[in-house]
Amino acid sequence: MLRWIAALLVLAGTAGAAESTDNLLALSWQPAFCEMQRGSPRPECRALEDGKLPWTESGFTLHGLWPQPRDRAYCGVTREEERADRAGDWDRLPRIALDRETATQLIRLMPGVRSQLERHEWTKYGSCYGDAAGQLGYFRDALWLTREINAALGPLMAGRLDRPARLDEMRRALDDAFGRGAGNALELVCRRDGPDWLISEIRLHLRGEINPARPLAPLLRRDHPVPSDCESGLVDAAGPG
């Protein structure tokens, strides 16, 4: 782990424009992601299969925090960086500027740092986020959101390994944690794996400025539910399916 922390420790920041107030938080169910990547050389999936990421069966992992609309991307990055990102050459992208505490949290909650996912997410989406603290502010906000959502949904998911979970009960769990209407912000994404539909990701539609010093509830609360990709799916456990 020390090697990954060292790779993320860069004492620089990048200030942006006004912070985005319309964002989509994408959180992956890591066992399902890796199940769909069978045969892939992704180091985070090898670590999962080797039993080195046991916490991924009790909570979601950070995919990204995306300013809306989704085509709002690559703000102020060079053409070379955009080309490298679009080509999937993420190891050619600049390193991310984080302090030790944030880097340590990111390695745990975003296993994809082993494949330079954090460089991709910053280059394409974080560059448009506009936090005054630059990269550090963007990832601090994203990690805080991930922890808050996991506190509400993690117990439900951990109790459903190899069994289905439904969108309506996940929305109720968010309502219980953050107040009525919070669950309406939740979108469920499923992917087919043979005869099964696996929960691969959840997406939270957030409205308002994200600030870890303030309650999350107002950002989630909606009068009507957002559209969802699926209504239920299997909660995949780590290891071969």
Automatic annotation (TrEMBL):
Q: Which GO terms describe its molecular function?
A: ribonuclease T2 activity; RNA binding
Origin: domain of life: Bacteria
A matching Pfam family = Ribonuclease_T2
GO BP annotations listed: RNA catabolic process
- Gene3D superfamilies, per database record: Ribonuclease T2-like
Matches recorded under PROSITE patterns: RNASE_T2_1
Keywords per UniProt? Signal
Q: Where is the signal peptide?
A: 1-17
UniProt xrefs under InterPro entries: RNase_T2-like, RNase_T2-like_sf, RNase_T2_His_AS_1
Q: Which family does it belong to?
A: Belongs to the RNase T2 family.
Q: What is this protein called?
A: Ribonuclease T
Species of the source:
Mangrovicoccus algicola
